[in-house]
Amino acid sequence: MVASKVVYEGWMVRCGRRKIGRSYIHMRYFVLESRLLAYYKRKPQHNVVPIKTLLIDGNCRVEDRGLKTHHGYMVYVLSIYNKKEKYHRITMAAFNIQEALLWKEKIESVIDQHQDLQVANGNKYISFEYKSGMDNGRAASSSDHESHFLVKKIKISKIWLYAL
Question: Which domain holds residue 44?
Answer without folding.
Answer: 6-120
